[in-house]
Amino acid sequence: MITAIGRSLLELAFDKAHQVVLRGRIHQQYIDRITSENGSLTYLDPGDWIENHSAKENADGAWKLYQHPTAGVASATNEAPTHRLAPA
After folding, report:
1. Is 22:10 a contact under the CB 8 Å cutoff?
2. Quick count: other Cβ atoms within 10 Å of Cβ 26?
3. Quick one: average pLDDT of 4-26?
4. Model confidence over 19-71: pLDDT tens digits?
5. Domain boundaries, the chain
6. Which residue has better confidence, 73 or 34?
């Protein structure tokens, strides 16, 4: 889920040639590979540890989603999907 603020952060990140936007606010795990005419980058929200026991890990240069195994919830790691950023 990319909000209007997230879109602004992406535009700034592309302008500055950054590779990652790490944004905390929505309290839900989110990871996406975004491409535009200016390149591609990883956009992610680490989730939140207190309510959802979720976090991000960077192992061997790859961002992964982590869900702590609690109350029958299995551990989860996923690769970032790839999407194209539509023009505003």
Report:
1. no
2. 14
3. 88
4. 999 887 667 777 889 999 989 998 888 777 777 777 778 878 787 777 777 63
5. 4-84
6. 34
16 to 7, 38, 70: CA distances (angstroms):
14, 10, 39
Paired residues of 54 in beta bridges:
67
- Which residues have CB under 8 Å from 71's CB, separation 6+? none
**Hey, CA dihedral for 56, 57, 63, 66, is it positive or negative?**
negative
Rounded distance, CA 32 to CA 59, Å?
17
Q: Is 46 exposed, middle or buried (0-12, 13-18, 19+ CB in 10 A)?
A: buried
